[in-house]
Design brief:
Strand order of the largest sheet of chain A: 1-4
CATH architecture of the largest domain in chain B: 3-Layer(aba) Sandwich
CATH class of chain A: Mainly Alpha
Number of helices of chain A: 12
CATH topology of chain A: ABC transporter involved in vitamin B12 uptake, BtuC
Distance between the termini of chain A: 47 Å
Shape of chain B: globular
Strand content of chain B: 15-25%
CATH class of the largest domain in chain B: Alpha Beta
Low-confidence stretches of chain A: none
Radius of gyration of chain B: 20 Å
Mean pLDDT of chain A: 92
Helix content of chain B: 40-55%
Strand content of chain A: under 5%
Largest interface: A-B, 42 and 38 residues
CATH architecture of chain A: Orthogonal Bundle
Number of domains of chain B: 2
Strand order of the largest sheet of chain B: 8-7-9-10-11-15-16
Order of helices and strands of chain B: EHEEHEHEEHEHEHEHEHEHHHEEEEE
Oligomer: heterodimer
Number of helices of chain B: 11
CATH superfamily of the largest domain in chain B: Response regulator
Radius of gyration of chain A: 19 Å
């Protein structure tokens, strides 16, 4: 493999990995605060893409208006999901919430199938993101610069919210002991709703960038990014925002290098990602940056 | 008292990775039914089952159509892997099945009750290889094959065999799966080998995304595909980067010559204000060929329909004149189409 080819492959990996990372931070944040693996995260991502798609199609909004609106709508969807589906099982054993999440995932997919139809739709890519930058033989889209930048910005924003605001303090407290926090007079339902709104908004942001990179949206589009984000979150240490971004980056680079180095194994790229997941769970369940488990 | 209706089942991918094929074919089948709503003096009733583009769901759909809906014959599936899952069930129940577009040879091999109205992949791969070698003047080819689909694996192999036999060289062989969206790693590998042509015998979504990313990564080699490329989504998703992609296909309105084709196109254009594509046409053909067999069989018994289907000769279908030959495969012309100015254009016809 020549040097420029290797460099190109690394850029391909960073470009894919930062996208995984971006989707993973919302995933991991919800887990970190509520101890809930939100399997519907990928499907919320899909809904965000459709909101953006229809905002452009039906209301002829420019992309810079439609994307924030789609993110806002997805945040509201997140609140609705929390109130409608998770609130009734809040005090039930954790497994109930997990199964609710799986059910929600199917519900959203089938809802999208009925409302939006099963055929894929083409997502328009604004020129700002679609220009090709060339450096010798190495080429990439301007989008590949935007994604890491946006991911970085969102991580800083998220860390600020969680560590510097009163709401964030309540979030951290809830992650330790929800019942005690309730006794302290904190409105737990309001905080969880905010958590879901934030998580869903992050999913929508990740989804829109995903759709800009791979300009095709369909009701099942959230499954693979959702699973990859889950792997990335576990890889980075579930619950840890910076870890999730690093995990995503690592996963993306590893996947691309696998396909590049061993072309005949390219069809098993996804299996490889899950092999990493199993390996991590077996040998280092707390991931790269996870806290040590208490004895 | 009105005679009982004749129930024909259709198991099609209405959702999932290849939803475009199923939805297009279903529209085509319905128009065909409007054109020919009765046979043997009885009304035809269509029963649709969605396979979600999935092999297990396909097998379940066939069982359901046979056992619950008691259909006398089945149209479907659109893609080879799914038809290979559904076919054995129909075979066992002795219910004739006719696939519009499953092109892998294994679909009908060794089966008495499974038929198709399309050509098969050894022919398609050979014609693609000749086109690459003689028309594109390519000597070095790269391939990308969707490893999770029997169709893509088969067609890729037939192309490679024919291309090397002609004297060409396969310089890069890469793989993907149907759900893949990112092809940058495969493309960077292909780019380093500098091929004259890339053969991508995959379904429309992967072909569209693959070609788009190829152009963005500066890969200039022309892309060739198989009949699976001919869905509107190819152009919608591929955008301007998809221009110039050529593919072997079943049908192009411009190449249509039969009377049935003209009637069908007129009705289709009236109803949908657009030109029909290969999947509309082949869906309709499966229906027409089946009804023709029913009228000749003068019976709704599986064995009689099977014999009549196998005896189909020079039937003037929407996609051209076809006969059912060995193994229940259609012998018929093939077209080569390309994408130009955001439309599918017709290049040439290759006769059997």
């Amino acid at each position: 493999m020549s040097l420029s080819n290797l460099l190109q492959q690394l850029i391909n990996g960073v470009s894919l990995g930062s996208l995984y990372g971006l989707i993973a931070i919302g995933y991991t944040m919800v887990y970190g605060i509520l101890r809930l693996i939100n399997f519907a995260h990928g499907d919320v991502l899909m809904m965000g893409c459709y909101f953006a798609f229809y905002a452009i199609l039906i209301f002829s909004l420019p992309w810079w208006a439609s994307f924030p609106i789609a993110i806002l709508l997805t945040a509201l969807l997140g609140i609705a999901i929390d109130r409608g589906a998770y609130l009734p099982v809040r005090r039930a054993p954790r497994i109930s919430a997990l199964i609710t999440a799986i059910g929600l995932s199917f519900l959203l997919e089938n809802l999208a199938l009925v409302i939006f139809g099963g055929r894929p739709k083409a997502f328009q890519r604004p020129a700002l993101f679609g220009e090709v930058l060339a450096w010798g033989d190495v080429r990439f889209l301007t989008l590949s610069l935007w994604i890491p930048a946006i991911t970085f910005f969102l991580i800083v924003f998220l860390l600020f919210v969680v560590y510097q605001t009163r709401t964030g303090m309540a979030m951290r407290a809830i992650s330790r002991d929800m019942e005690t926090v309730r006794l302290m007079g904190v409105d737990v339902n309001r905080i969880t709703s905010i958590t879901f709104a934030l998580g869903s908004a992050l999913a929508a942001a990740g989804g829109i960038l995903w759709a800009l990179k791979y300009p095709q949206i369909d009701p099942y589009m959230g499954i693979i990014p959702g699973l990859k984000a889950f792997v990335a979150a576990v890889l980075g240490g579930i619950g840890n925002v910076v870890g999730a971004a690093l995990g995503g980056l690592l996963l993306g680079i590893l996947e691309i290098l696998l396909v590049a180095m061993m072309p005949s194994l390219a069809g098993y790229k996804d299996a490889f990602a899950f092999l990493i997941l199993i390996g991590i769970l077996l040998f280092r369940p707390t991931g790269i940056m996870g806290e040590k488990l208490p004895e | 008292m009105a005679a009982e209706t004749i129930k024909i089942g259709a198991y099609l991918p209405m959702t999932g990775a290849v939803a475009a094929y199923g939805q297009d074919a279903w529209n085509g089948i319905q128009i065909a039914r409007e054109m020919k709503p009765t046979v043997l003096g009885r009304n035809v009733e269509l029963v649709l089952a969605d396979t979600k583009s999935d092999k297990i769901e396909s097998a379940n759909a066939v069982s359901r159509l046979i056992e619950k809906d008691k259909v006398i014959a089945i149209i479907g599936e659109m893609i080879s892997g799914d038809t290979m899952a559904g076919g054995p069930i129909a075979e066992k129940a002795k219910i004739p099945m006719i696939s519009p577009t499953a092109t892998n040879p294994l679909v009908t091999q060794g089966k008495k009750y499974v038929f198709r109205v399309c050509f098969i992949d050894p022919v398609q791969g050979e014609i693609a290889a000749k086109y690459a070698y003689n028309t594109v003047k390519a000597r070095r080819a790269a391939v990308i094959i969707d490893r999770s689909q029997d169709y893509c694996v088969g067609l890729g192999k037939f192309f490679k065999d024919s291309f090397t036999k002609l004297g060409g060289q396969i310089v890069a062989e890469t793989f993907c799966v149907t759900e893949d969206k990112d092809f940058s790693a495969q493309l960077s590998t292909i780019k380093a080998k500098n091929p004259d042509v890339i053969y991508a015998p995959n379904y429309y979504s992967p072909v569209a995304l693959f070609t788009k990313q190829a152009r963005e990564l500066g890969v200039k080699a022309p892309v060739l595909a198989g009949d699976g490329a001919q869905a509107d989504e190819l152009i919608q998703i591929g955008g301007k980067e998809i221009e110039g992609v050529a593919f072997t296909g079943h049908f192009h309105p411009q190449a249509a010559s039969t009377k049935l084709a003209k009637d069908f196109m007129a009705r289709y254009e009236k109803k949908y204000k657009a030109e029909p594509n290969a999947f509309h046409a082949l869906g309709a053909d499966a229906y027409f060929v089946l009804l023709d067999a029913l009228s000749r069989a003068k019976s709704t018994q599986g064995e009689a329909i099977r014999a009549a289907l196998a005896g189909t000769k020079d039937f003037a279908a929407v996609s051209g004149k076809l006969s059912i030959g060995e193994d229940g495969n259609a012998v018929k012309p093939m077209v080569i189409n390309a994408v130009k100015d955001g439309k599918f254009v017709y290049l040439t016809t290759v006769n059997p």
